[in-house]
Design goal:
220 residues; mainly alpha; 2 strands; 72% helix; elongated; membrane; RDD; cell membrane; transmembrane helix
Length: 220
């Protein structure tokens, strides 16, 4: 009986133990090697995924969905316009006190009245110069919006003239009714924007919008 128990008791085999250790080490090395090979790939996949999440949209549908946030809405532009009118009236009143009153009397402009001529001159000078040099009036600066071409570029002189003279005169002539189009069109454009092919965008989205336009154009 004792002999049978002794026979069944596992004996210590140094060679077997060394073989097991070697196999275990090989397994660990293989796992580490596999991990080292997979890590760059996993890292690349994570980077690609991150870049994909932050990348610019490549389809028209994605562009349209994102572009809804680009454009300044009706009330934002309305407040900016009111601020501009206050600035224009203040400048016109100040200048009229010193010089334009005499100019009006010398020109004898009864249709506009004594103060109206100075107001008109200041208004168009203000809108043309501010839009051309800064792409913003003071009102737009306060509301953090700016005027760009439909492609996202700075307006040229003729763009400004079309927008601020032709477009604005037509809008005033039609009792500002065309301005209501800002509330209903996709890009929040008024009549003067359509005439000059311009848009009014939020400052924070101006650069992104230009990059998106460039990327979409490069794919066409």
């Amino acid at each position: 009986m004792n002999n049978e128990l002794n026979n069944n008791t596992p004996s210590y085999d140094p060679n077997l133990n060394e073989t097991s250790v070697e196999l275990e080490n090989d397994t660990i090395q293989n796992e580490e090697s596999t991990r080292e090979q997979e890590d760059p790939k996993e890292t690349e996949e994570r980077v690609d995924k991150k870049e994909k999440d932050l990348s610019l949209p490549t389809t028209i549908e994605d562009y349209m969905n994102l572009s809804k946030n680009f454009y300044a809405g009706f009330w934002t532009r309305f407040v900016a316009y009111l601020i501009d009118m206050i600035v224009i009236y203040a400048i016109a009143s100040l200048l009229n006190t010193f010089s334009f009153g005499l100019l009006n009397k010398q020109l004898d402009f009864p249709i506009l009245g004594e103060e109206s001529l100075s107001y008109v001159i200041v208004m168009f000078t203000y809108f043309i110069s501010m839009t051309y040099f800064f792409s913003q009036t003071l009102g737009k600066m306060i509301m953090k919006i700016k005027v760009e071409t439909n492609k996202g570029d700075k307006l040229g002189l003729m763009d400004v003239v079309y927008r601020e003279v032709v477009g604005r005169l037509l809008t005033i002539f039609l009792v500002y009714i065309p301005y209501l189009a800002v509330a209903f069109t996709n890009k929040k454009k008024g009549l003067h924007d359509f005439i000059a092919d311009t848009v009014v965008v939020k400052e924070d989205f101006s650069k992104l919008r230009r990059q998106m336009n460039e990327k979409l154009e490069s794919k066409n």
